[in-house]
Specification:
By secondary structure, the chain is mainly beta. The protein is built from two helices and eight strands, in the order βββββααβββ. The chain has a domain of 90 residues.
Length: 131
Amino acid sequence: TIPGTVEVKLPAVVGGDTTVRDVHLSAEPVDGGWSVKSLAATLPGRTTLEADGMLVLNLEGHFGFNGSLLLAVAQPSGFAAWLSKDVDEAIRRLPAAGFKAKVDLSQKRQAFSDLELILGKAKFSGRIDSS
């Protein structure tokens, strides 16, 4: 591991027909991966993505992320159309959506604790754990 900090600030990243805007990353290499001090980007659907935590990458091919994750979607129909060709009418009617949680994401487990989920005016809290 080479000590130091990686700082990336890009106005836009284009891949195919997708533009991700205002990409900001601050991370440091650590044994087994990267300590992500902050990651932020604007995705389609006027969606804000923010994260910080530990990105696990190792020689055995293990990949994962442990930390905080926020996804705030100002235009749910636009975000859903980016993810899928078919957008359900219920999603089209949502004025906003999003979630924030402490996450433990890997190939074998996806856990969201201290979860706060917002769908329009409805607010839910709890946890999701899939192993």
